[in-house]
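for ur thesis appendix - UDP-N-acetylmuramoylalanine--D-glutamate ligase. copy paste whatever u need, i formatted it the way the template wanted (i think)
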Amino acid sequence: MKAIKDFENKKVLVLGLARSGEAAARLLSKLGAIVTVNDSKPFEENPSAQALLEEGIKVICGSHPLELLDEDFEYMIKNPGIPYANPMVAKALDKGIPVYTEVELAYCISESPIIGITGSNGKTTTTTMIADVLNDAGQSGLLSGNIGFPASEVAMTASEKDKLVMELSSFQLMGIDRFHPHIAVITNLMPTHIDYHGSFEDYVAAKWNLQNNMTTDDYLVLNFNQDLAKELANKTQATLVPFSTREEVDGAYLSDGNLYFKGEAVMAADNIGVPGSHNIENALATIAVAKLLGISNDVIAETLSHFGGVKHRLQSLGQIDDVQFYNDSKSTNILATQKALSGFDNSKVILIAGGLDRGNEFDELVPDLIGLKKMVILGESAPRVKRAADKAGVDYLDAKDIQEATQIAFREALAGDVVLLSPANASWDMYRNFEVRGDEFIAAFEALKGE
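the 3d part is after this line
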C-alpha cells in the first residue's frame, strides 16, 4: 500500500456503510484522516458501526442530519448506491466538497496495476474469468470492487506483483477523479439503472468515466458487436482492443467456431465451460486481456474450458433425475435473460421469471420465449410477464415465491429438461437482493435433491 499523505489530518465524511463504507473508513483512519461515519441504520442494529466505534472512529447512526455537513469536511466518500439527489450528497456538492466512492481510494493507495471491468451485463463473469486466467498463469489476479470484495480493502494488502481485477459499477464510476486502470474492459452498454441515472446518455457517461485518465500506454477492450462502442472508440486516448462475435477485428473474435486473437486461434468456442452466446463475448474479452498480458493460449484454453460460472450468473447447480438446474438470479433485466436463454434448446426449458415491477412491458423478450416448454411466474411484475408469455404462446403457472416456483418447475420437468431461474427482473419486491433470491433457489434445489 502506498503511504499517501492526501488525507492526513483531513476531515472526511463516510456516508453509508455496508462493506465498502466500512473498508473506506478503516483505510482513511489508517491514512491519518479524521473520519466520521454516517449511516441511516440505527446504531443498536448496526454491527459495522459498533465495530468502527470500538476502533476509535466517530459514528453517527439512525439518520442523515444535514447540519453534519457544517463541520468543514474536506472530502465525502459515499456508498455507491446512494444517489446524487440525496440531500446529504447534494449539500456536499453545493459546498464544493469532493464526493468520491471508495474505488478512488483504492486507486490512490494501490501498488498494483488495475484491470477495470464494467458493462451492463457480463461484468461479473468476465471479471472472474480474467482473474482465473491470471492466477492459472501465475500472475496473481486479485478480485475486487463490485464483485463483493471492497477495492480499498484489497488494495491495502496488494503488492506490485499483483493485479487488481476490479469489477466496477456505473454508481462507483460516478465517484472517481484520478482513477486510472492500465487495462479497461466495457463488456456492453444497454439501458439499465435509468431510474438512478435519469437517462441512458448519463448512464453511458458514467461507464465511460472508466477511461478518462487512460493514455496510449493503456488498453481499452470494447465490444464491437455494438455500434455505440464503435462510436465511443473514437473518443478515448487509450489503445483500442476490440472484440466481436460478428466480424473479424484487430483484437479477439469468433470465426468458424473458434476464438481468435489477432489472427491466432486460441480455442474452440464449444469448449467454454459455460453455455450461451453471451459467454462467448465474455471469453473474448478475457482472451483480449490475457493476450495483452502475455498469457499462453494453452493456459487460456485450459482455464476457460473448466470455468464453472459465477454464483447467481447462469450457475450450474447440478441434476436431479436428469433434470439440470441453472441459477441465473443475477439476470435482473430483459437482456440478461435473453442471453441466458440463448444457450439452451427452448423446448427443454422451464423458465422461472418475474420480480420487481418497474412499469416496463416485456415485449422485447417475446421472441426469446417462443418454444419454451413452460414458465413459472412470480412477483409484482407477474401480470406483465404473463402478457409476454401469452404473446409467445407459452403456458405458465403461478408461484408465490422462489421455493414454490422451484418445486413447480421440477414437477413439470422430464429427464433431459432444464429448470432455469432467470427472472428478467430485480428482486426487491420479495428479496433483499438477487443473491438472497438465488440462495433460496439453491436451497430449494438442495431440498429436492435430498427427497
